Amino acid sequence: MKTRNNNPVTDMDSFRTMKKELKWTIIDKFFRPVQDKNKDPFFRKMKDLKRLLIRKYRSKSQRSLISVIMPTFNRAKVIPFAIRSVLRQSYRNWELIIVDDGGQDDTERVVQAFKDPRIRYFKKRFNKGAGSARNAGLRISSGTYLAYLDSDNEWDPDYLLLMVNALKNSPSHESIYCGQDIYRSSKRSPDMKFEGVRAGLFNRSMLENKNYIDLNVFMHHRSLYEKHGGFDAKLVKLLDWDLLLRYSNDSFPFFLPCRLGTYYFGRADNQITFKKRVKPMARLHAKLMSAPLILESAPKLQSVLKISSFFSIPKANDRLDLSRKTTVIFVPNSKDLRLVRLSVEALLKNTDRRAYSLIVIEHHSSRDFARYLKSLESAGHATIIWTTSNSSLSRKVNLAISAAESDHDIAIVNHATLATNGWLGGMQQVITDIPNAGIVVPRRVLPRNSSYITQHVPFCSRNFEADVSLSMHNRNIVDPFLMLSKGYVELSYAPLMGVLLSREWLKRNRSNLVFGKNDYKSNLKMCEQAVKDGFKVVYTPHSKIYYVHK
């Protein structure tokens, strides 16, 4: 089976049967069964898909070598469980590289007791952490594909078989991950108890806020290691998150909706998950902070907006289509000149001047405000359209649209919209990839500590900025499978500030667009009109705006 837009996801009819259940997993990553896990409909469909894939793949060639990297440190008591789960694999062409990170227990004796030539044991003199140990394993590995298993976790016997074949069947992807059962013990209750399943469709913007992909159920082609290197050994924790962010920046991983791994919280006494946190998330975010994307003066920007970090945006296409012009309509509905200047400066700094024309539409307000707008016009940055003070938003926008070139796309922004580098090109690429995209929606990112973050995406952390374009509150996800390899998602609704309206759709509706207040009903009406006209509302993770209020 090939999905629309020739997106080579899988050729299993059963994958489509899970579309309804999988739709919301793009923003909700942890599931507890509503009843017994063997009877829950979603869990049962994952189990059925697994059976189908086993039948499909068990006769496939096993010529591709898979290297399994297993770091360990004083885990002699639990490592046999992990080793046996590798030995039980139905896919037989693997090498297990166990790197003992300077442990002082009987791990070597325990490992050597497994008389299998595919198991290779190496011991380091000093304990330098899991990242260093994994890197040592990667350096001596030979596999075309690389997988990771910690010494206190386990795999399903068909994990390697399903993962490597599903990845081969997805040529647009270089990596893959799957669902994982979570078991937990505590000091009060030492017995392992089933807690739920960690699973879900890939969402790059959410991965920048919170890690939901466990390394134990992640496999990738060797090319990613050769291109991006291994683990950052300087990170005490979250080094797997760092690796996932780097590996998914150019090529999004494919999600296989099967439960093929088991994670045990509390199985090992020295489990790093249970160790005291030394501000690991803050350190990782500090590392990932790139050069300021908006202003030369980052401290000034952060003091105004309290934005924690700026991530580089995965580019769908690094080249801006200069043959496709855009009119950016700026409606500064604020008397705060500082915020208006910030928004305009972000737009000017982060948009190729050859690709757009800027129309600012405003009534005569304060003297300083008018002076600033006139300075933009004098410098050739913008055309100013002055209106009466009581003009509605609808009238302002429609005046600007009528003044725009008829063959231009239209982007509408206001004082609360801060463009980032590549925002326009990222949205343009969607129209190239999906010609009937009428409204293109970028990441709509709220600064850290915004009270609206968890309202829209409960799974996200408010400690860091978060994208709320895909919203549980708005229930706006229609089709997350629109183009999995690029992360495009079809929506039913999006706030229209910051979006791109395609010229193809505008040709049909240019004189009929009615903008009310920037509220849910008027925005929904516009989105519904686009769908009625045969166009789609499409979200892209390759374009990013910040949406801020004072």
UniProtKB/TrEMBL annotation:
Species annotation: Cohnella cholangitidis
Keyword Protein biosynthesis in annotation: no
Entry keyword Cell wall biogenesis/degradation: no
Domain Glycosyltransferase 2-like: 67-222
GO molecular function, one term: transferase activity
Gene3D superfamilies, per the entry: Spore Coat Polysaccharide Biosynthesis Protein SpsA, Chain A
Alphabetized Pfam families for the sequence: Glycos_transf_2
SUPFAM superfamilies for the chain: Nucleotide-diphospho-sugar transferases (SSF53448)
Keywords: Transferase
UniProt-recorded name of the protein: Glycosyltransferase family 2 protein
Signal peptide: none
Domain of life: Bacteria
InterPro entries hit by this protein: Glyco_trans_2-like, Glycosyltransf_2, Nucleotide-diphossugar_trans
